[in-house]
Amino acid sequence: MPDELAVVNHWIDGEEFVGSSGRTAPVYDPARGIQTKNVVLANADEIDRAVASAKAAFPGWRDTSMARRQQILFSFRELLASRKAELADILTSEHGKVLSDAAGEITRGLEVVEFATGFPHLIKGDYSENVSTGVDVYSTRQPLGVVGVISPFNFPAMVPLWFFPIAIAAGNTVVLKPSEKDPSAANWMAELFTEAGLPDGVLNVLHGDKQAVDGLLEHPDVKSISFVGSTPIAKYIYETAARNGKRVQALGGAKNHMLVLPDADLDLTADAAVNAGFGSAGERCMAISVVVAVEPVADALIEKITQRMAGLTVGDGRRNCDMGPLVTEVHRDKVSSYIEVAIEDGATVVVDGRDIEVDGEADGFWLGPTLIDAVPTTSKVYLDEIFGPVLSIVRVKSYEEGVALINNGAYGNGTAIFTNDGGAARRFQNEVEVGMIGINVPIPVPVAYYSFGGFKDSIFGDTKAYGPDGFHFFTRQKAITSRWLDPSHGGINLGFPQN
Ligand code: NAD
C-alpha cells in the first residue's frame, strides 16, 4: 500500500525537509518489480526554499578559505570511500544494476571528488606586471553563486558527483535535482557531505519532476544549469536556461558505434562488445549499441559474441549476477518493443532476450541480452537510442563506409575502433566526429582530469563535464587593472596609455 511506504524527502539547509505538495512519484525495486518508496515532488514554495537556502549559504561559503574547503572535501572523500558499500546497496535497490557495477559507478564518482580536492591549482589567475608604466593587470576566477544540477536515472551517484564536488570546491552553492526514479543516493551523499563538515545550505537536494526543473530554469537566483539526460530534454533545458540568461551545459543521449576492422583481435573485440553492450543492462550513455563490422569479419565476430552471451547470468543485482533488470516496467517494455520492430524491418534476431531465465523474482523488470544482425540503417532500431541490452550489428564493406556511417549519425558521444593497425586507428581518431574515442577500449569515459562530453546531439553548450572544463564552467573570470600611485606619473592624457 503506497501509504505505508517510506518517503524520500528533500534535503534543504542541512536537514531532511518534508515535502508538502501532496504530489509524489513511485520508486521501485526493479529486481523485485515492486514499489518500495515514494519520492516527494517539489512545489513552487519548496523550489524557492531550496534556492533561498543555497543563496543564504553562498557568501559564507565563497569566503571560506581554500584550505578549509579543501579539508572538507578530503573528509567527504574519506567518508565516501569507506562507506561505498552502503551507497552501492542503495543504487542496486532503486536502479537495479548489479552491486559490482554500482561500486564501479561510485569509484568513478570518487575520482572526481579526488580531482576536485586540487581545486586551488585550477582556479588560479594570471598576473602581468607593468602592462603600462606602473600598471599591473591580473585575473581571478570567482564562483557563480547558486548553481542547479539536474541528473538522470542511469548514474544516480556518479553523474551528480561529476558536478557538485567541483561546483562546491570552486565556492558555489548547489541545488541538485536528481532523477525521481532513483532519488535516495542524492540524499545519502548530501547527508554524508554535511557529516564531513559542509555548512548547511551549500548542497541542497530538491526532488521533483518537470515542475521542479522548470522552477530552477526560471529562478532568477539560479546562475547556471548543468543537465544530463535524454536529447530532447537537454535541448529544451539548453534553450530555456540560455533564454533566461543562465550559463548552461546540457549533455544528451547517445548511440555509440564500435568499428571493427578485419585485422582486429576478435576475442578481445567480442569481450569488449559484450561488456560494453550489456553492462548495466545497456543503460549507459557510453554503452556500445551498434557494432559496425567491416567484412569479412561479421560472421566470425557474431559467433564469438553469441558464445559469450550464452554464459551471462541475468538476475537480482544482489545475487552476483552479470546483468540486472531494467529500471522500470515501462522502460523494459519500450526497450523490448524494439525487438519486434527489428523483425518487421527485416533484421535477424540472433539472440532474443525476451523469455529468459533469471535468478530473481518473476515480477522483476527483466529483459535479457539481445543481439540483432543485419540491422537496416533506416530502422528505428538503428536510429533511436534504445537504452537497453540490445546490441545491433551493421555490416559494411570498408573502413570508409564505417566512418561515414558513424559521422552521419545524430549523436556524437562515444565511439571505439578495434584494430591492430596503428595507422588506421590514428586516421580514425582524426576523422571521426565524436567527442570521446576508444582505441581497442570500448567505453572511453575520460578520467576525472580530462573532461567528459560528446559532439552534436549529445551535448548542448560548449563546456564539458568535470576536468578543467568543470572548473571553467563553475567560475567566471574578472580581469583587474591596477595602479598604485607613484608621484612621478600623473597628469592628464585622454588617450589610451601607450607606454
Ligand atoms: P531524462 O531526460 O528522462 O531525465 C533527466 C532529468 O530530466 C531527470 O532529472 C528528469 O526528472 C528530468 N526531466 C524529465 N522529463 C522532463 C521534462 N519534460 N522537462 C524537464 N525535465 C525533465 O533522462 P533519463 O531517462 O533519466 O536518463 C537517460 C538519458 O540520459 C539517456 O538518454 C542517456 O543517454 C542520457 N545520459 C547522457 C549522459 C551523457 O553524459 N551524455 C550521461 C548519462 C545519461
Give the SSE layout.
Elements (H helix, E strand, L loop, with lengths): L5 E3 L1 E3 L2 E3 L6 E6 L4 E7 L3 H19 L3 H17 L1 H12 L3 H18 L2 H4 L4 E6 L2 E9 L2 E5 L7 H12 L3 E5 L6 H12 L7 E3 L4 H9 L3 E7 L2 H13 L3 E5 L4 E5 L5 H13 L9 E7 L3 H13 L18 H16 L3 E4 L18 E4 L6 H4 L6 E7 L2 H10 L2 E2 L1 E5 L3 H10 L4 E4 L15 E2 L2 E2 L6 H7 L1 E9 L16
Bound molecules: nicotinamide-adenine-dinucleotide (NAD).
How widely separated are the two ends?
79 Å
Q: Could you give me the name of the CATH homologous superfamily of the largest domain?
A: Aldehyde Dehydrogenase, Chain A, domain 1
| CATH topology name of the largest domain | Aldehyde Dehydrogenase, Chain A, domain 1
CATH architecture label of the largest domain: 3-Layer(aba) Sandwich
Q: How many DSSP E strands?
A: 23
What number of structural domains do the residues give?
2
Shape: globular
Q: Strand order within the widest sheet?
A: 15-16-17-14-13-19-20
Total helical elements: 16
Average residue pLDDT? 97
Instruction: Report the biggest beta sheet as strand number plus sense, adding barrel if it closes.
Output: 7 strands, mixed
CATH first level of the largest domain: Alpha Beta
- How much helix is in the residues? 25-40%
Oligomer: single chain
